[in-house]
Amino acid sequence: MKNVAIKGATIYDGNGQVLHNQTIFVENGKFSSIAENATIPADYDVIDANRKIVTPGLIDVHTHLGVSEEGVGNEGADFNETSDPVTPEVRAIDGINPLEQGFGDARKAGITTVQVMPGSANVIGGEMVVLKTVGTIVDEMVIKSPSGMKAATGENPKRFHGEKGRMPSTRMGVAATIRRKLIEAQNYINRGEVNTDRKLDMENLAKVLKKEIPLRVHAHRADDIATVLRIKREFDIDVTIEHCTEGHKIADFIATQGVRVSSGPTMSTRSKVELKDKGWHTIKALTDAGVNCSITTDHPVVGIEYLRASAIYTIKYGLTEQQALQAITLNAAKHLGIDDRVGSIETGKDADFVIWNGNPFDLRSEVEQVYINGQAISE
After folding, report:
1. pLDDT tens-digit map of 192-245
2. Residue 76 class from Cβ within 10 Å (0-12 exposed, 13-18 middle, 19+ buried)?
3. Cα 148 versus chain centre, distance
4. How much of the chain, in percent, has pLDDT values that exceed 90?
5. Rounded to whole angstroms, what are the CA distances from 145 to 92, 355, 357?
6. Of all residues in the chain, what percent carry a pLDDT higher than 70?
7. How far apart are CA 25 and CA 228, in angstroms?
8. I want to staple 147 with a disulfide (CB 3.0 to 4.6 A). Which of 130, 178, 344, 353 is the partner?
9. How far is CA 94 from CA 67, 78, 146, 235, in A?
């Protein structure tokens, strides 16, 4: 692995700072230092980034990359195990095709890290995983596995399972199903060594109850968000709110609950009643209230290549450029619990970064080069 020096760069570091005429040093796939007027050792490959902008690699916190393959149809639809409304035993990592076209689209768009999760048909959908976007073997792409347990409230689980004549068919039923399974998992944990048979579903839910992973819950409406937060308090578990479409209506309340939020996919259509109040004002209200917010495309609901365009729209509706950048870099890394590894250009972190030929918040600007783990990625 060659050491690299990127000289003359303007750096948007992900921490809210803009650094001018800096040299970034990369050693062994990590950022080793960032300095002005630095001497570059002779054994370094030198990249001239004069008049270029360097950002951290972008992060999408909520995708179905590789488990929902574009243009494939049913054969590539491996994101919802709808045979039962509660499937904590399934793992997204087992359904990911790392050669799916969406990973290439992500890299070309400067996206270096993604979380891949099951869909929202089930009340409890299974475990998720955080990956780098380059590789041919999923296990070698993993940053964090598992990175959370998927759950869903609202219309999706009601429709998928209520129409089959089984619980849940109401919002009450969705909440009751979550509580019932968490109580079963509590009982499983409490039995301890008395257990003679392993139960994979209970083992996976035990990780939530032990706060090893968060419950990441699909919730659009304000009342569904409040229900998720009620369950969080009842069971003393870590939770993230996924989508949070009506979060602007209760932003101050959300801010008191110690949760992180993914916002989006706001570029989508209003395909269901829960999305009638969607808009870019949501992330602005949540950010103003002090909530850690990330932006998501929910790929393939919105193509992952539009993550940056989504961030640009948030600027139009009130975020600063640096707030928008953090929503797809450092805030996103915090949402995933991997900010010690990625999300900002800092000494010791993975050297995942993007060189742009202009301001990344100008849609006319293009990605010139993407680096993942200190390696230049070619497409």
Report:
1. 867 678 999 999 999 999 999 999 999 999 999 999 999 999 999 999 999 999
2. middle
3. 11
4. 94
5. 10, 29, 34
6. 99
7. 44
8. 130
9. 9, 9, 12, 29
Q: What is the pLDDT of residue 346?
A: 98
User: What's the CA gap between 311 and 6, in Å, rounded?
Assistant: 25
Average pLDDT along the chain: 96
Q: Among positive and negative, which fits the CA dihedral 39, 45, 49, 50?
A: positive
Taking the CB of residue 366, how many other CB atoms lie within 10 A of it?
Answer: 12
Q: pLDDT digits over 29-53, tens only?
A: 999 999 998 899 999 999 999 999 9
Q: What's the pLDDT score for residue 243?
A: 98
Q: What is the 3-state secondary structure (H, E, C) of the chain?
A: CCCEEEEEEEEECCCCCEEEEEEEEEECCEEEEEEECCCCCCCCEEEECCCCEEEECEEEEEECCCCECCCCHHHHECCCCCCCCECCCCEHHHHCCCCCHHHHHHHHCCEEEEEECCCCCCCEEEEEEEEECCCCCHHHHEEEEEEEEEEECCHHHHHHHHCCCCCCCCHHHHHHHHHHHHHHHHHHHHHHHHCCCCCHHHHHHHHHHCCCCCEEEEECCHHHHHHHHHHHHHHCCCEEEEECCCHHHHHHHHHCCCCEEEECCCCCCCCCHHHCCCCCHHHHHHHHCCCCEEECCCCCCCCHHHHHHHHHHHHHCCCCHHHHHHHCCHHHHHHHCCCCCCCCCCCCCECCEEEECCCCCCCCCCEEEEEECCEEECC
Query: What's the rounded Cα separation, in Å, for the pair 295 and 62?
Result: 9
What domains are there in the chain, each with its CATH number?
1-57+344-379 (2.30.40.10), 58-342 (3.20.20.140)
Task: Return d(Cα 352, Cα 141) in angstroms, integer.
Answer: 13
Cβ atoms within 10 Å of 7's Cβ, excluding its own: 18
Give the number of C-alpha atoms closer than 13 A to the C-alpha of residue 8, restricted to the C-beta side.
7
Question: What average pLDDT score do residues 337-346 get?
Answer: 98
